[in-house]
């Protein structure tokens, strides 16, 4: 059997298997390769803590990074604790985690049972506001952004929280009410949702038409994927 290394690049938060013709079974061994700002050791410490482990997912933010092992353990590095916050590793200990997401100052994790766990700064209710809406629901997706948090239920309902002057959370939840949402993307001050019918719904800061312009160009088309990028100019 051939063993090949698969590098997980935190800048893309995804992994692509080796290409080319294979003539024998291949075992892919994932390892993290990181670069960039490391003032809080969000890169170097994550690489150290994940050495020798099989990593299946990664998430990066401003000052902290997360990794998820094949057996559902969360590994964190950098400035991922806020005040007396015990940190995402402690909060998820003993639970099998299947998804992770890192926001600027908070982290979200999803258990195998569909429970949402949130840790970090909650001054604008982006954690407590989300958790208050999760009772009795089972979730399939979590997303942490700058001032907002999002989650999708197993019935494709979008849940959002976080107080922001641009209302990227509350407005997106309102616009998708009654719609089945299959994907959500968000960054600083704006957010996007994709419905089961391929419709793109957007909310948040739009002075440069990043929301309305995209929605205008996708109207009448069946869209299969969405992504949101951080603004190059500030509102």
Describe the fold and architecture.
The protein is mainly beta and 235 residues long. The protein folds into 2 domains: 1-120, no CATH class; 122-235, 7 Propeller (Methylamine Dehydrogenase, Chain H). The chain contains 5 helices and 14 strands. The strands form 5 sheets. The protein has a 3-stranded antiparallel sheet with strand order 3-4-5. The chain has a 3-stranded antiparallel sheet with strand order 6-7-8. It has a 3-stranded antiparallel sheet with strand order 9-10-11. A hairpin with a 4-residue loop joins strand 10 and strand 11. It starts with a strand and ends in a 17-residue tail after the last helix. The model is unreliable at 1-29 (pLDDT under 50).
Order of helices and strands: EEHEEEHEEEHEEEHEEEH
Uncertain segments: 1-29
Residue-averaged pLDDT, rounded? 84
Distance between the termini: 55 Å
Secondary structure topology:
Layout: E1 2-8, E2 26-32, H1 44-50, E3 55-60, E4 64-69, E5 74-78, H2 88-92, E6 97-102, E7 106-111, E8 116-120, H3 128-131, E9 139-144, E10 149-153, E11 158-161, H4 170-175, E12 181-187, E13 190-195, E14 200-204, H5 212-218
């Amino acid at each position: 059997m051939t063993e090949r290394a698969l590098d997980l690049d935190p800048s893309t938060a995804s992994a692509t298997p080796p290409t080319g013709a294979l003539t024998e079974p291949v075992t892919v061994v994932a390892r993290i390769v990181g670069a960039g700002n490391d003032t809080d050791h969000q890169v170097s410490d994550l690489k150290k803590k994940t050495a020798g482990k099989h990593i299946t997912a990664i998430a990066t933010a401003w000052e902290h990074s997360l990794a998820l092992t094949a057996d559902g353990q969360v590994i964190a590095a950098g400035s991922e604790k806020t005040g007396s916050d015990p940190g995402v590793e402690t909060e998820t200990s003993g639970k099998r985690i299947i998804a992770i997401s890192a926001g600027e100052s908070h982290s979200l994790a999803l258990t195998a049972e569909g429970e949402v766990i949130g840790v970090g700064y909650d001054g604008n209710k982006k954690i407590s506001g989300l958790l208050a809406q999760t009772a009795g629901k089972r979730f399939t997706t979590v997303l942490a952004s700058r001032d907002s948090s999002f989650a999708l239920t197993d019935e494709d309902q979008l849940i959002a929280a976080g107080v922001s002057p641009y209302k990227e959370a509350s407005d997106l939840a309102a616009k998708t009410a009654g719609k089945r949402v299959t994907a959500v993307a968000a960054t600083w001050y704006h957010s996007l949702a994709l419905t089961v019918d391929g419709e793109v719904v957007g909310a948040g800061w739009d002075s440069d038409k990043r929301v309305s312009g995209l929605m205008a160009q996708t109207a009448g088309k069946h869209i299969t994927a969405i992504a949101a990028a951080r603004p190059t100019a500030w509102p």
